[in-house]
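Key idea: predict the complex, not the pieces.
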Amino acid sequence: MAGWIFTEEKIFKKSPSILSYGKLSGSYGTSGSDGIQAYQYNSLYKIIPFFPAFQGIVPTSPYNLYNPDYSWALKKSLNIALDLGLFNNRLLFNATYYRDRESNQLVNYPLPIQSGLSSVLGNLDATVQNQGFEFSINSTNIKTKYFSWKTNFNLTFNRNKLISFPDLANSSYSSQYVIGQPTSIVYGYKYKDVNPTTGLFEFYTKNGTVTSNPAYGPASIGGDEVPIANQEVKYMGGLGNNFSYKQFSLYIFCQFSSQNAPDYLAEIYSSNQLGTEYNQPTAVLGNYWKAPGDVAQLQRLASSQSSAAIYPSAIKFDQSSGVYSDDTYLRVKTVSLSYQLPDVFLKKIHIKGGSVFMNGQNLLTFTDYKVGDPELPGSFTSFPIQRILAFGLNLKF
Amino acid sequence: MKKMFFNINKLALGVVLIAGSISSCKKLLVIPQNPPSSITQQEQFADSATTMSAVAGVYTYDPGSGFAYSDGSLTYCAGLSADELSPIISNDVQQFYSYNLTPLNNEVTNLWGYPYQSIYEVNAVLSGITNNNGLSTSFQKQITGEMEVVRALYYFNMVNLFSGVPLVTTTTYAATDRLPRSPATAIYAQVKADLNDARKKLTATYPSAGHLRPNLYTAVALLAKVNLYQGNWQNAYNEADSVIRLGGYNLEPNLNNVFLDGSVEAIWQLPANALYNVYTDAANFEPQYAGATPNYQVTPFLLNAFETGDQRLQNWIGSTSVQNQTLYYPSKYKNISPTATPVEDQMILRLGELYLIRAEAAAHLSNLTQALADINAIRQRAGLSPNPADGASQTTVLNAVMRERRVELFCEWGNRWYDLKRTGTAAAVLGAEKTGFSANAELYPLPQTQIQLDNLLIQNPGY
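Result:
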């Protein structure tokens, strides 16, 4: 770890400049972590809960697999930061570059069930990198006797990447990860559209041909699944503005984020299929295929959602790129207005302090994301994020 | 400052003295071998009493951490795939009925996964008791035999539902996490090796009260079934014969007593101590209250297979009227109340099946007299007149056996589904009765998740 306040150097001290503070710092470190319970290397037995004794004998069953040789996970972190203060520190700027490389992770390594239990605790010999930039600005734009305006802004870009994974192809993660890609990639079918003649969803196979019933599994096991989406957040940040004028103050905070995320179709085709007794968004009304020649967003309906004619393509659609869409939004998260009651008035009625305020949360959202909340992608039936309006009076005696 | 330093010195000296006095007689610090809520494998198999807890786990009525088939899913899935049941609710089970199973079906995931979890438990008991000086030789022999019978039952059903599956006989995950499917012949070889070894280790006396843990005749009875499936008629005949003649079982004269705890017909049954203390077949099939729609209906094909006057139709099939429609459901198990008496157990093997195994084997060996005598023993118990010996040919007797199996063993252990497949009649029978059947439907798909975790697993054709 090292830091250098370069504005303390003579060359800066001699000549007056708009730069009032400047610091360059960096750090590099290695840390070990476990984050696991003790004794997990041993093969352990537990009482089977809730079940009565078998002929008077309390039943026990094994609940983990024997793995005597696991060790610490290793994390190497690199950080470089630049801090600048301008105009007598009325504008503060920070930029940070970070790179974390984690290897030998302690994970519940998934196993095929033939091994007896669905996972074993052990070290994963893979290296995952998270690197990115963080920027923040704090500025006092205006400051007079009665009026002030302050702004703070932050922006984060994180990029995740799987750097190495020895023998990935033969591991139980082979259909989940790709070296050089983020660990948040999703395997699935590449969606084409609804066939105007048959009225069924169609997908591209690994050879580029078109089918409504692509083969299960990634190409390595003969299937048609390819990486179709990356759910990594592309960027996110927030912008806050604070105004005050005499006894009034106003705070407005907005947040924004951008990622590729499952949309409402993901929920419809996984659990709320059209034709079952569930509430459906009006967005699906009239948008399904009805007659040959229709160019529709959704495939045809049948007498039952489990009908053999439509079920396979519906299931495949749920695992296709067709249920992912852009999830970029800007949300006015907080607006808060308050008025400090004047002291003169308060003294008369023997009160030490008081204010009247109005608070609003989630007032406005700007997004192209359809149906449901962009902050909770992939679900339109879960309880939405509430819009809250609060009015209040604070008095101190 | 100086005073404080002095005090710390004194304290340090005290600590050293105390520590010294402890270490002179005992280890300074004893790290317990296990976290408080569980015990290690070594402790689990320290003596016969602790070992029995792990054995009780194998028999416990809890799919996933006990007996794999205690959720009754094998019965209704195979019943739907055959021509015994039709689903009333439409979900994953519908796919078994209409032959459009996908590798994502949850029931398939469980039919594949639960047995492997249970096989691990069995393998863990076997490795815990082998070369264990804390256990007597006779105890080791007894438990080894029992566990081999349990393992054989699992692999026998796996191979019949999926054909070849990964063969796992160890608890070392490094040796089992990437396995291809062994050929069906290798699975059958393992089943028979286990049963033949169990036969040498087990005695005619049941190890505990009732018929809840396998004895010698349980191993022999299952071996008879395996040999029947493989067409080893003489072996199947001899084994079924020895169970019928020497096992001390009797056909239960009252049909309503066959599935009760302590049934004289039971070769192996497990206590139905599920969450609500009822056997899941009853919970799955019986209407939950008067007037409720049952989850599954008995198909007209099965209803029509009963001859007039067959007492099994009266006693083992229930009916209820829902919206002026009569719905029929399997009712071999009737208890849906935890307090109901008499208690029902989950029947795994019973003498009735052994009679029909001997009959089928005898018919193939051209011993038609014996075959008819066995069929008629079952028919008589059901209140039916005996099949006449006059004019009987091998074909008519074999048909009579299959018809009797259909109405005697319906909705038990997938017998009908297995029978149609092993006799090569599935396509003709199911193709005529139902729509959507294809030769590929005879095998269930491997769960998709498992192929992703072990890419040496090859999916069954057609999925």
